[in-house]
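Appendix C reproduces, verbatim, an entry submitted by the partner laboratory led by Prof. M.T., so that reviewers can inspect both the input and the predicted structure.
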Amino acid sequence: MRRRAAIRAALILGVLTPAAWSATMNSLDVKKRHGRYALVADTFLQAPADAIFAVLVDYDRLNRISGIYKEYGYLEPDADGTPIVYTRMEGCVLFFCKSMRRVERLEAKAPRFIRTTALPEQSDFSYAVSEWDLEPVPGGTMVTYRLEMEPDFFVPPVIGRWFLERALTQGGARAINRIERLALAEARLADATGG
């Protein structure tokens, strides 16, 4: 089943990705166990890691990555100085629509690692941790995205895992291409300004 999802993602990416963009989702794995969803996606982007990093931590303009983000931004830092970020996402599958909010601690080690950890008392998730690993390689960056989450709201059993796979194969394909384009623009701007 996981292999079929990865093949389906590759086929969709092959059809939807214009030749000018080289972002490629190499694999996608979605699992559900004991009410918790876990996914891992491996992607190649033809952009430098520092520029990808800059796009991913730009919570003031997160909607550039995906239209699913309706509200987003930085909040007051935690008492220890750790940045706190906020997102509100909206999505529908068939008859099931949901607005989901997450308030998270943002830990980052530029330009290779980003982790967010949800604060359950301020989020619609009893548990959520996401990680981005950015590994520079010849011609670009290998990006591994991991997400483990447990919604604090009812998710119809038939929809949950299917929705995640669908969202990542369709919306994920568009998002990685946007991230790549934004990162390439970021890199060009840094080169032009000497930054």
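Residues 1-21 have pLDDT under 50 and may be disordered. Additional entries are available on request from the coordinating office.
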